[in-house]
Amino acid sequence: MGQPVTHFEVHGKDAAALNTFYGELFGWHVDANNPMNYGLVDTHGGERGINGGIAPDDESWVTFYVEVDDLQAALDKAEKLGGTTVLPPSDVPGGPSLALFTDPAGNRIGLAKGM
């Protein structure tokens, strides 16, 4: 059985502008009223879509998160297949555990547990 994509993120220097842009473009509700100014995105997709986030960051990038049972095992497998760990398993306060790697082409991919 495959592992589902459960979350996406858009990162950029002006997250507030990105919140407005995607909210107006797609009709998404974005709530960034939290200490990290992390925009929680409700795409209103029901069972057909996933929700995500918009984050302030010095770099601009887009990624998706795949739900896995064991973050470290997935990172180890990614590295054996030519990937590179970017962020080792880390706990988000009050949230899931996450990790990041790049694939052989340099795309940043997220792993999540407890999303």
Describe the structure concisely for a colleague.
The protein is an alpha+beta fold and 115 residues long.
Folded structure, characterized:
There is one protein chain. The chain is of the alpha+beta class. It has helices at 15-26, 71-80; strands spanning 5-12, 29-31, 39-42, 52-56, 61-67, 84-91, 97-102, 108-113. An eight-stranded mixed β-sheet has the order 2-3-4-1-5-8-7-6, covered by helices on one side. Strand 7 (97-102) and strand 8 form a beta hairpin. The model has no long low-confidence stretch (mean pLDDT 95).
Strand content: 35-45%
Number of helices in the DSSP assignment: 2
How does the major sheet shape up? 8 strands, mixed
* Annotation, overall tally of beta strands: 8
For the biggest β-sheet, the strand order reads 2-3-4-1-5-8-7-6
The percent of residues in helical segments reads 10-25%
Q: What gap, in angstroms, lies between the N and C termini?
A: 18 Å
Write the H/E string, N to C.
Answer: EHEEEEHEEE
- Overall geometry comes to globular
> What's the rounded overall pLDDT mean?
95
Low-confidence stretches: none
Q: Helix/strand/pairing class, anyone?
A: alpha+beta
Radius of gyration: 14 Å
